[in-house]
TrEMBL record:
Protein name in the entry: Rieske domain-containing protein
Organism whose genome encodes this protein: Devosia rhodophyticola
Domain of life: Bacteria
Residue ranges of the region described as Disordered: 1-21
Length: 80
């Protein structure tokens, strides 16, 4: 089985940053939930800051569900 090369602090082209990998199973095959935070700035200059969960396998294409119209994130209740 391949080991992820992702690590907390990694970001994608949509300004989503990985905060932590959890031990909670994700919804994709052999994936775990990663906690992401949106670092996109709004027109006024403030950072969105929305936190949500995602499978590690789709991190590279994730968009914020709050400010970019991305898919609803996986639950992170009890993780933060």
């Amino acid at each position: 089985m391949a080991v992820s090369q992702r690590k907390p602090g990694d970001s994608n082209p949509n300004d989503q940053i990985l905060i932590a990998r959890t031990d909670r199973p994700g919804t994709d095959h052999l994936q775990y939930v990663w906690v992401l935070v949106c670092a996109r700035r709004n027109p006024g200059g403030a950072i969105c800051g929305h936190r949500y969960g995602a499978n590690g396998s789709d991190f590279h294409i994730r968009k914020c569900p709050s400010c970019q119209g991305g898919a609803t994130g996986l639950g992170i209740e009890g993780l933060l």
